[in-house]
Amino acid sequence: MLKADATSPDRVRAPKAGEIIKLPNLAKTFRTLATEGKKGFYSGRIAEELVKVVNDLGGHLELADLQHHLETGSEPVEPISLKFPNPHGTSETDGVELWEHPPNGQGIVALMALGILKHLIKQGTIPAFGPSDHNTAPYLHAIVEALRISFADASWFVTDPNVAPGVPTSQLISAPYLAERAKLFSSSSANTSILQPGDPYASPALTSSDTVYFACSDSQGNAISFINSNYGGFGTCIIPAGCGFTLQNRGANFSLDAKHPNALAPRKRPYHTIIPGLVTSLQDSSLHSVFGVMGGFMQPQGHVQTLLGQVLCGLNPQQALDAPRVCIGAGMPDEGDVYDATVYVEEGMPEETVEGLRKLGHKVEVVKGMGRALFGRGQIIRWTKDIDGTGVWSAGSDMRGDGAAYPA
After folding, report:
1. I need a surface site. Which of 47, 49, 58, 321 has the fewest CB within 10 A?
2. Which one has a higher pLDDT value, 332 or 238?
3. What is residue 2's predicted lDDT score, i.e. its pLDDT?
């Protein structure tokens, strides 16, 4: 899929700006889709080449698997949510409700982290952070520790609920369970031990379950949050003969431990990283915003940071996206251990914050230049009403990517 060039070391290279590249095999695939629809992809020439290249490389895929997916289709799911009251509000209806995609997606990580922070604020363990606290060491310490606890659970429990029906989604985001998990937090030091998943079944709740993001909105206050991905860069970089596209590598998020709930199995969906986000107002359930942050395991971390930046610290969508971010773990599997103890801090974070995190015991690494792609690329559309009741849209697009916010 590269451009032929006899002067390049491998006689091929990426096209330069302004050059023409022709992809006739991809064009042929598009023509098939245009005339035959999904059936043209999951059966016939394309399906046969797809199965052949996977099996030639030692994989396990049959035409019957593709036929099964064609017949089954994509499954509609009910979103999961968590209410986050604004601690600076005048009533319990001041605040937001964050809606996420359920397992096998990792949106539950963002919900759990928010739930832990909500409990810590309620108990007075951490302050009700405000604008002056944004991206200070205590503020980021609380976020980092809440995310680390949440990922410890997600790394075990997030899997395909149709194959492993014991996925305890409702229990994991229940107030009693999150209060129990919040006990692992210390405001004075980082938790440097390897965190183990909790036992949501023992919760009191049971004694009484390459990414592109875009958002669109209309004049009536409706909006859509959409994300799509083949996972790592060009996916597997495997190209079925004569098809012109690379195969995704979402299977990388299966576990090879046979005892793990997310163990590799036929016709099973793995832990999935892509999560579109939507936020509503606690006051009247009206739309607050639609948003997303692309970037592997950075996604729920980006959701938490950009949302709290708006709700607690008064940032507008663009300010929330522009602010330096942190990332625990490597973000993407090909960049290292996604559950590593390192806290990666983006260039531009105040030096006082960096040193403050280190004093709390965090292993901190400042990421500069192009490496800042680690911190994802986000988009936000926000809906508010003016004092006279007129609906007002505002939006932001991440400077780390090539997106933009366009009024139509």
Report:
1. 58
2. 238
3. 81
372: left (phi over 0), alpha (psi -120 to 50) or beta: alpha
Would you say the C-alpha torsion 358, 362, 363, 368 has a positive or negative sign?
A: negative
How far is the C-alpha of 327 from the C-alpha of 299, rounded, in Å? 10
Domains (range + CATH), the chain: 80-229+273-397 (3.60.20.40)
**pTM of the predicted model, to two decimals?**
0.90
Q: Are 381 and 289 in contact (CB under 8 A)?
A: yes
pLDDT exceeds 50 at position 130 = yes
- Percent of the chain past pLDDT 70, that is, above it, reads 94
Gap between the Cα atoms of 399 and 73, Å rounded: 36
- The pLDDT score that the predictor gives to residue 93 is 86
Q: Which structure tokens are listed for 394?
A: 């505002």
pLDDT band at 203 (very low <50, low <70, confident <90, very high): very low
- The dihedral of CA 4, 6, 11, 14: what is its sign? negative
Neighbours of 368 (CB within 10 A): 9
Mean pLDDT over 175-181 rounds to 96
CA 120, CA 87: separation in Å to the nearest integer?
11
Helical (H) or strand (E) element with 385: strand 377-385
* pLDDT at position 208 over 70: no
Share of the chain above pLDDT 90, in %: 76
Report in angstroms the alpha-carbon separations of 271 from 7, 108, 109, 242, 266: 43, 11, 12, 30, 14
Residue 348 tokens read as 């531009």
Q: Tokens for 139?
A: 């503020």
Distant-in-sequence, close-in-space partners of 192: CB < 8 Å, separation ≥ 6 = 341, 361, 363
Which residues 6+ apart lie within 8 Å of 181 measured at CB? 112, 116, 149, 150, 153, 198
Q: What is the DSSP letter of 84?
A: E
